[in-house]
Design goal:
about 20% strand, 5-stranded parallel beta sheet, alpha/beta, globular, 13 helices, single chain
């Protein structure tokens, strides 16, 4: 049994499928979890997880299924600050064209220095590096702003936290934010590792779901997963009817709060570890655009907008601009995270689209009359993060509970779509080993 058909659950199930009889139960009416893509013609918008990146099982699966990867190499990121838009790869332009005051520059320098001081220890396994990371884990990300008097700098850091993790700096330990920004500052070559599968991220989850066929049961809400003898029994509801399945093993691949609901009798250590996980929040609005000819955003992967109603804009069409003449149209996704998302959740779709459209046009007036209808998604639970010292309980969740194995992007060090895929594959291999297959 695999409970949950997000990326980790689908990877677990398809890894098992050739060597074991597997059934996947998913409460929603679609597979993919936080992976969702909306398509129009040859353009697409990821209205869930934005990019794929890195190496490992996720990239291997994309290659194995011959999914074309749109490269984002040679694209760049821009920043809109105080009404000016500059390419962040030009440090001088960043410092002087954004109209920052003296205290703003001092504040940015203080934050940058703190991040760069930690950067050499972010990927090392030395004793000193582990001590530095433990120190970051014990402090809130807001500690980066200690002694900073610039409100603009504070706005920038809050925007980074919202963009990367969907939360505020006070909510999370410094580790994830420092790692994310530190690697971007010290290793710009990592940017080409970001990619857009042709057709969007859902291309892969659609293929994995199709491979499972009738073994994937949508609209199946699991009530409990419990040990029974040397196996498990799973109770669930589908089409209004209560059902039960017995299995040798189960992989539970659901968010932490759902795991707490469906796994009765959890040991206190596991209950506390699941309870330590928090989730970032996002509101995303996608726009298919109707412009013709080259546009100033064509070469940009993203635009950071810390002072607007959304904190960043992603250009999903950037990967299509490499070869041949530029085709008409495009695909943009604007998103807000953390407190900015919280303030939008209860607004109507029309109000959210109006705010995002107004601010997007203030950056690119060329889009006037060329923005399609906004596609709104509210995500109240996306990227896992931990409060200071909360991550200390994480190793507990990497071990199975007898015949019940766990999977999810919360298991690895830097939660991402790639980590979700790796976790699912790891859980499946552990089950096969457990069964002697």
């Amino acid at each position: 049994m695999v409970v949950g058909a997000g990326m980790s659950g689908l990877m677990a199930a398809t890894t098992l499928a050739d060597r074991a009889d597997v059934v996947v139960l998913e409460a929603a009416d679609r597979s993919g979890g936080r992976v969702e893509t909306v398509r129009k013609g040859e353009y697409w918008i990821n209205v869930g997880t934005q990019f794929t990146e890195g190496t490992g099982p996720l990239i291997d699966a994309l290659h194995r299924h011959d999914i074309e990867m749109g490269s984002l190499a040679d694209t760049s990121v821009a920043l809109v600050l105080n009404g000016a838009l500059v390419d962040t790869s030009d440090v001088l332009a960043l410092m002087f064209r954004t109209r920052m005051g003296f205290m703003d520059r001092v504040g940015m320098a203080m934050v940058g220095a703190r991040i760069l001081a930690a950067a050499p220890f972010l990927e090392s396994d030395s004793r000193l590096a582990k001590k530095v990371r433990a120190g970051l884990d014990a402090r809130p990300a807001s500690d980066l702003l200690r002694g900073v008097r610039s409100e603009l700098t504070r706005t920038m850091v809050r925007s980074w936290s919202g963009q990367w993790m969907g939360c505020e700096p006070e909510e999370t330990a410094a580790t994830q934010l420092v790692v994310s920004i530190g690697l971007a500052l010290t290793d710009p070559a990592k940017v080409p590792n970001f990619a857009l599968p042709a057709g969007g991220n859902q291309t892969l989850t659609d293929i994995l779901a199709a491979d499972l066929g009738e073994r994937l049961r949508l609209g199946a809400t699991v009530r409990t997963v419990e040990k029974s003898g040397d196996g498990v029994v799973v109770d669930y509801v589908a089409a209004g009817r209560s059902k039960r399945i017995r299995a040798k093993r189960a992989i539970v691949s659901v968010p932490s709060d759902i795991a707490l609901q469906i796994l009765p009798g959890l040991p206190t250590t596991h209950r506390n570890a699941f309870g330590d996980i928090r989730y970032g929040r996002y509101v995303i609005v996608g726009f298919f655009t109707e412009e013709e000819g080259p546009q100033p955003w064509d070469g940009l992967l993203a635009v950071s907008t810390p002072q607007l109603s959304f904190q960043a804009m992603f250009n999903h069409a950037a990967a299509l601009r490499k070869n041949g003449p530029r085709k008409p149209g495009g695909a943009l996704a604007c998103f807000a995270g953390g407190a900015s998302a919280d303030a939008l959740f209860d607004l109507s779709d029309e109000e959210i689209v109006a705010r995002f459209s107004r601010d997007l046009l203030s950056v690119y007036p060329q889009l006037e009359g060329r923005l399609g209808d906004g596609i709104v998604r509210r995500h109240r639970r996306v990227v896992p993060f931990w409060a200071p010292r909360g991550r200390e309980s994480l190793p507990t969740l990497r071990n199975p509970l007898g015949p019940i194995h766990l999977a999810g992007d919360y298991q690895l060090d830097m939660p991402s779509l790639a980590d979700a895929a790796t976790s699912g594959e790891n859980a499946a291999k552990a089950v096969l080993s457990d069964l002697g297959r």
